[in-house]
């Protein structure tokens, strides 16, 4: 069988089979696989039709590109007739291989949302605000004072009749707050914490579910439970509810559209005919936790036959739908379950369960034989202190759930509208033994599909990679947050920009970040300042250097990594306005003014990188990237102006901060890293500056001093400038401060601070001590990029021109990684055995690669047993310093080389 070129991984607007698409001209994309070397698509064809069977009937096609040359970026914009509202479209991509012969094809679909304002008839509804009762706030241990009480989670229901066969039914639904939807007693969909968190003033996404199978003839019931969530709950570190930010109580909006087989349509929308009552959730809050009283269960409330005469009519609150938008991102879902690894008794009715992993989500607890009214309390912590929960670092977040039993033989409690960051859970109120299998950690995350894996021979580095992945899991929940446990959980911009390259290795985060970028752009102020956090709450200053700059860096990163030009188009004006904001207030181009909170190289250790050095370096970087973005978008004058500005900032930087011997002011690792990574030095000073950097690392006994910003550049810059040995030394360093120090002390996630816990000092100040903060995990990009070796050429986009540079070194005897890129799967790895290094790589169809084979004897390098000159798809490009560089066409290759 001839292995053929095959498309797979079809997406529309960065999502697989999106239901509820809002883009009028969505972008279609596919990845490619092939077993043959040198495969590249000669042409493709796209067809779009209303029904799958119509794809084969030329007369019924809505759009047909016919045979066209492969696109420059991996996206093709739909250019057929205008898309209808609430309609499903089927599409097929067909490929022709390098010889021009027809190759594989694949089919997918997308479905539009409600595209026009007059498609909506729903109104915002909720319990009558005057009648909402409030529960006592949680005051566990009296650790904090609450200024506002928490309200019960209301239930809403609407009974309606279905007459005749249903062909298709969709529900379009969202909430100000959080909602869980059901139809006829069955939960609809698997979204958690819907509709997620956006700047609700500007954008509130609605979700779409196919409920055709849930309806039946006769009476039907649609029901919803609401919770405060980010809308009206406690968010951030103000220790007050969100009333000041968004609203005071949750509200609901839904529209069920039922299409009958006979062509008739029935719409059931939220209005005054809905009824509202109270259920078992006494309150639920993201930071405080949830209280569930099973005695209050309104059994059968969301199914036909329930007597809702005791319920009140829902209040119609308003009809403002201006913020409604189609969802452009994947929802939060349950992505994993962790059974407890141990449950240890602590006194009469108290236990501490260990999930073995610092995680984010909630606990599912099975309870047996509790008497009616018995109360169980769950408290959550990331760490233990002397065998008991370490709670102080949660600050005012209570992170405490309560369950009041109904008295059934077996009851299962799992909170629904709260989320905690924890490894340990203390369960009080359960007399007698509690079994480990009765305690399960339920992991929630924005469902960004896994994209890559990194593996190597060293268990500590393997654990580091696991800690990075778990940091990503725990903090990619609706928005990229700094931390998941304390009263903060905000979308801090610098954390996001340093970690994005790593995140994009592990998962497909294109849609996740593109969506969040809209809140970053939306939060820009009239002067052009980006914020420190998005959605913008709690922290209202102008963005600090490196924080605000994320508004420029992230769109560029998304373009480079995914080829997403649209995110550049939509962010460009904001990027340029930010650069202009900094320039306007700093005419001498040294960024001293309008620096917001200026966090410097946040949480650097034992040193102080001069703030002006850091700020000015970022200013230069933003000007440079804005110039590049302008060039991509064809804005020639803008490109030239920003390139000129970049040159001038660079000159000012050198003038102000660089000595003739290559020393950079402050002399810290981060000062050198910024100057080198952001290309701020005249060429002749680069080796000297790199030498000063290396000398500092050596002088400190091979220890780092970098904070959030410097750390992302540390190993990459050392490696780039000939000090891979030092980068490996830092990777393997187990003394304080280092990544492995935390691992040696049991870390299963990346800590916020190098000194979160130390042998000498124990816990750092509880004021700011998260054990799940991804920023210092930005080294993950280097693990994939240089240790295993997957990178792209500096001018390449979407990994089309791969640069594969496996770096043999450190304690490793092998390392390998693979990664889904927009063109397909890339892999690169090496293994050293008896002085011979084996290098295996995969290059997807449509991409090419330059591979640096590490070797001491270029002439002895073999591919598939053949001299490289004889190997198919391989061309020798050059030879230097222990490397044989070869150019590769797509395909799988296996090299061996003496080292
Ligand atoms: C902390 C956050 C975040 C950081 C800012 C400066 O409160 O945790 O990680 O970006 O401060």
From TrEMBL:
Gene3D superfamilies: 1.50.10.10, Galactose-binding domain-like, Immunoglobulins, Maltose phosphorylase, domain 3. Residues 165-335 form the Bacterial alpha-L-rhamnosidase N-terminal domain. It catalyses: Hydrolysis of terminal non-reducing alpha-L-rhamnose residues in alpha-L-rhamnosides. It comes from Nonomuraea montanisoli. One of its GO terms (molecular function) is alpha-L-rhamnosidase activity. This is alpha-L-rhamnosidase. One of its GO terms (biological process) is carbohydrate metabolic process. Residues 795-861 form the Alpha-L-rhamnosidase C-terminal domain. Keywords: Hydrolase.
